[in-house]
Design a protein that fits this description.
The structure holds two protein chains of two kinds.
Chain A: E1 3-7, E2 10-14, E3 19-26, E4 30-38, E5 45-50, E6 56-59, E7 62-66, E8 70-75, E9 84-92, E10 99-101, E11 105-110
Parallel strand pairs in A: 2-11
Antiparallel strand pairs in A: 1-3, 3-8, 4-5, 4-9, 6-7, 7-8, 9-10, 9-11
Chain B: E1 4-6, E2 10-13, E3 19-25, E4 31-38, E5 42-49, E6 56-57, E7 65-70, E8 73-78, E9 87-94, E10 102-103, E11 107-111
Parallel strand pairs in B: 2-11
Antiparallel strand pairs in B: 1-3, 3-8, 4-5, 4-9, 5-6, 7-8, 9-10, 9-11
The chains are: A mainly beta, B mainly beta.
């Protein structure tokens, strides 16, 4: 059974204070690891897909990296508008295209 | 821009009522999904569909059914709503092959 664990559950940072969110996973044949951003009361918004260990993707202040056991979402010099819940999900060979999600990291950036 | 829409943002129903949640995507995606999201439990897959008239159970199908009569539309049905089905319901779609899914805005369902 695929499993995804995100840490920390919640993180409060000052504006400009860089940090990283962790996503640890166990999966039977990784087809992709996905990061989403979710604002309160809204659906998840797609950020990145990573397919193989060593791969990195960047978008503005966000950078996602992948190893064989975990992924990190690095946030550089965050702004208050980066406050959201960040979700990690994996797709596996046995999952028939369904995704297994972690419970998310609730990020608050204080001005 | 990809777009997934859901029929209602907020819905309040009574125990025992039949509830229909509708989802429409305009991206010509083959695969569509229904999830529910609850605090502390994350997103859990209820049902998914590979094609018109095809459906597969996800991790928590009990108490739900689905219908896919057209490629762009995927409906979630609660035959007899119960209070433990109070939740945020999210629809998503994607192309085959394990690629990223695109989500709708969600329906916050309250069953009284």
């Amino acid at each position: 059974e695929d499993q995804v664990t995100q840490s920390p559950e919640a993180l409060r940072l000052q504006e400009g204070e860089s940090s990283s969110l962790n996503c640890s996973y166990t999966v039977s044949g990784l087809r992709g690891l996905f990061w989403y951003r979710q604002d309160p009361g809204k659906g998840p918004e797609f950020l990145f897909t990573l397919y193989s260990a060593g791969e990195e993707k960047e978008k503005e202040r966000l950078k996602a990296t992948l190893t064989k056991k975990e992924s990190f979402l690095h946030i550089t010099a965050p702004k208050p508008e980066d406050s959201a819940t960040y979700l990690c999900a994996v797709g596996s060979g046995g999952g028939a295209d369904g995704l297994t999600f972690g419970k998310g990291t609730h990020l608050i950036i204080q001005p | 821009d990809v777009k997934v829409t859901q029929s209602s943002r907020y819905l309040v129903k009574r125990t025992g009522e039949k509830v229909f949640l509708e989802c429409v995507q305009d991206m010509d995606h083959e695969n569509m999904f229904w999830y529910r999201q609850d605090p502390g439990l994350g997103l859990r897959l209820i049902y998914f569909s590979y094609d018109v008239k095809m459906k597969e159970k996800g991790d928590i199908p009990e108490g739900y059914s689905v219908s896919r009569e057209k490629k762009e539309r995927f409906s979630l049905i609660l035959e007899s709503a119960s209070t433990n089905q109070t939740s945020m319901y999210l629809c998503a779609s994607t192309i085959p092959g394990g690629h990223e899914q695109f989500f709708g805005p969600g329906t916050r369902l309250t069953v009284l």
